[in-house]
Amino acid sequence: MADSLRAGGGGRLAEAARVGLIWGLIALFFAIVGMVEAFAGRQIVVGVVSLGVALVAVTGLSAGYRASRWQKGSPIGPPLLRGAVAGAASGLVVSLLVVAGTGVNLRAMFVSASPELFGILSMGRGMAGAYIPTVGGAVLGLAGAAVSILASPRLRPLATGLAAVLAVGVFQELLQLLLAEGAVQSAVRALLFESEGLSPRGAAVVLAVGWTLAAVWRRRREGARDWYLTQGASRQRSIRLVAYLMIIAGVIVLPHFAGLFLSQVLVLVGLFALLGLGLNVVVGFAGLLDLGYVAFFAIGAYAVGLLTSVGEHGLLHLSFWVAAPIAMVVSLIAGVLLGIPVLRIRGDYLAIATLGFGEIIRVLVLSDFLRPWLGGSQGVLAIPRPMILGYEFAGPEQLFYLVVASCALVVVVAGRLRDSRLGRAWMAVREDEDVAEAMGINLVNIKLLAFGIGATFGGISGAIFAVMLGSVFPHSFQLLISINALALIIVGGMGSMPGVIVGSLVLVGLPELLREFAEFRFLVYGAALVVMMQVRPEGLWPAAALRRELHEANHVPGLLAPDGDGTGQQGAGA
Amino acid sequence: MAILASHGLTKRFGGLVALNRLEITVAERSIHSIIGPNGAGKTTYFNCITGFYRADEGETHFAERAIDGMTPDKIAHLGIARTYQNIRLFSNMTVLENILVGMHYRLRVPWITAVFRTPAMLAEEESATAEARELLGFVGLTGRGDWLAKNLPYGEQRRLEVARALATRPRLLLLDEPTAGMNPRETIEMMGFIRRLRDELGITVLLIEHQMRVVMGISELVTVLDFGTKISEGTPGEVQADPRVIEAYLGTRKIAGGLPH
Fold first, then answer.
1. For residue B91, which residues of chain A lie inside 8 Å, CB to CB?
2. Confidence band for A75, pLDDT divided at 50, 70 and 90
3. Is the N end or the C end of chain A the one with fewer CB atoms within 10 Å?
4. pLDDT for residue A108 is more than 90
5. pLDDT confidence of B229, banded at 50, 70, 90?
6. A332-367 burial by CB neighbour count: b if 16+ within 10 A, else e?
7. CA angle, corner B163, sides to B161 and B168, nearest 5?
8. What is the pLDDT of residue A10?
């Protein structure tokens, strides 16, 4: 009896150690590719923890969390022990790296295995501090296991608070800049920050505020929704109107507070969101995997460039407001034309075929043959900024409005199409092409509409891109743009429009703000995609869940409810 | 009056002759069954009529129009709808949306009106939704409108598939093994339901079926296929007595008398 118990316990401990080793290898990877050292420059809380250390710490926490395997009702001792073992095992890998690295010069093979790295991992003690990752790992693993045992929605506000600390700490430079002027701002700044980052006192304040706000929101959310639902239709409408007005007011003042750099980032995020929203029509709604989407971005940009430029390649010197609709029409036509040859191609083959289009367009604009008209690799220059009633969209702070307005327009148009019979036909084609056709859906029309409408949205993005840079070059239209657009759709949630915007913020915005990330951009992309597919294949903001959530209040599947409430489309479209 | 007539229909897959000079005539407002052993070419015939396959030889007329070479959507517009042997619903769409897809081609308002939510478009959507709910009621799925199709129990998925086909307003409905996987009670319900399709909606029903009880219970005419060839046709009683049918199903030695040992 005792033997079997011990064997069982030993087996599970061994397994915990194995889990820990795997996470340790992940930490090892972070360290030797240079991420830890690069991120260590970014302090989260001054003198306490940096982003690089946090990266290693997360592996320890995760090891403990994954290894604890606590089941409700069972004693909490063994899971905690397993967590600590797993955490220690993951830390041990890092410790061994410190020992190996301090003893032997690893830099011949691993460029990033520098003394600075080992300094970070051993808290500046070198070989003498090699035990620190193991001990730290054990503590973190214990914490991870504790989280898994306590795992309850009640912990979420705490997580929100910690996330707030992370965000404020990481973006301290930006925030300090934003709080540079004004009496209130200065007071807040003095409370939270030291000159080089978030102070421990500031961290405590941010944690407390984030925690409290999240807890209050948690408690009040249900009540607020119920209150909203009990209001009359006209009251609901005015509440929505007020909410919209507040959002619009927020958008109008945002660039003013954000400043030049942040506005530039937001414009870029918006442009990719536009691309994502367009590609989402093709990939998310109609299920046609298009890898050549950058073609329409390029076509929109070149159309606006050629039509408005006052330089040597300018054709008509039109105003942006005339050129942009023309660019949209040109993109639409291009989308339909490029759609025709691939109508009968499905799935993976479609992806490969469309992949070619993006390249064809890029090679065409680069070609000597078209150089007299398109400028070859020199591109089209001297594209004037858009003007409206004497207001010039001169820089990012102004272009931001243009981008947000375009995004809003595209979201409304795409959303309404999705909820119409055309949207249903797209979904049907995505679900089962043959059956859709057998139900009387004309595949040619439906697919070409998807390609054309998606291309139009891409063209808008390209048009704004052209006036943002004031010039267009073939080199701006790499395959990578298509892949970025697709990646942000996948990360955000296939077919979900809020997901596209979230995906754009995460995949385009974050790397811009965290310059350290830029170096590891594709590593992070790849890892993010793999992790998303494993952990949350539906995306950060999935499409269907939201729609169903709207119905949960008055419709519980499994009970025969009267069918009188609105349909799925009407509910989501309102 | 024949609503569907195929003459000399032949379909080959490489060296395999799936349909061999098939002659089938389906009378309007009848319930007509096609039976035969596995691989006899029954589903191939359905695929030929619906335009999913193109027959190599022969021709098919539907309501006096040649439909050979038409695309599946055109044939659906003419009034032929089908269900599938292994249910093929749009599983990630709601029950109501599945039916609305069936109604798609009958909705006339241009797609661009959806962007502006014109009164005509909203009115059409509303009447379409009302009609879809009516159809749900007809197949006994009232209250299931907002469910995802994949979450329905098996029997209800079958009925939804029929409802989706009915949404195209067919004159001829092709049912591919409508009672497959059903228990006896569900099977009897399905038989009653098929009769209602004909009696209340005036739809001609052509079905592929394996359960003899169903075939014998509801069909007015039975066509028996074997290796792509029609080997017998007649009332249920007649084909049951036809020695060629028994041979196709049970093998020759049975006819010769005595079980093989």
1. 431
2. confident
3. N
4. no
5. very high
6. bebbbebbeebeeeeeeebbebbbebbbebbeebbe
7. 105
8. 63
For residue B252, what pLDDT is reported? 57
**Alpha-helix runs per DSSP H in B51-153:** 72-78, 95-103, 113-116, 119-138
Statement: residue B255 has pLDDT above 70: no
The residue with tokens 């790992």 is A137
CB contact under 8 A, A431 and B82: no
Among candidates A422, A435, A563 on the partner chain, residue whose Cβ is nearest the Cβ of B133? A563
Chain A residues whose C-beta sits inside 8 Å of any chain B C-beta: 413, 416-417, 419-425, 427-428, 431-432, 434-443, 449, 544, 551, 555, 557, 560-563, 565, 567-569
**Tokens found for residue A410:** 């595209």
Residue percentage of chain A with pLDDT more than 70? 93
Question: What's the burial of A417, exposed, middle or buried (CB within 10 Å: 0-12/13-18/19+)?
Answer: buried
Q: In what order do the strands lie in the sheet with B57-62?
A: B16-27, B2-13, B57-62, B65-66
Residue of A nearest to B83 (CA): A435
Residues 172 through 231 of chain B touching chain A, CB cutoff 8 Å:
none
Taking CB atoms and an 8 Å limit, are B111 and A428 in contact across chains?
no
- At residue A567, does pLDDT exceed 90? no
Q: From residue B239, give the alpha-carbon distance in Å to each of A70, B229, B232.
A: 65, 15, 6
Q: Which two tokens stand for residue A271?
A: 């442009």
Residues 6+ apart with CB under 8 A from A417: A281, A285, A423, A453, B111, B114, B115
8 Å CB contact between A126 and A118: yes
Contact B76 A422 (CB under 8 A): no
Which site among A449, A567, A569, A570 would you substitute to test the B interface, given the most B Cβ atoms closer than 10 Å to its Cβ? A567
Flag if A416 and B115 touch (Cβ within 8 Å): yes
Say which residues have a Cβ less than 8 Å from residue B235's Cβ, sequence separation at least 6.
B220, B221, B222
pLDDT in tens, A532-547: 888 777 778 877 644 5
* Residue in B closest to A426 by C-alpha: B101
A563 closest CB neighbour out of B71, B90, B145 = B145
* pLDDT, tens digit (0-9, with 9 covering 90-100), for A481-511: 999 899 889 888 888 888 999 999 988 888 8
pLDDT for the residue numbered A557? 43
B chain contacts of residue A562, beta-carbon cutoff 8 Å: 143
Q: Say which residue the tokens 């009516």 belong to.
A: B134
d(CA A266, CA A264): 5
Comparison of pLDDT for B34 and A218, the residue scoring more:
B34
- Chain B residues with CB under 8 Å of A443 CB are 73
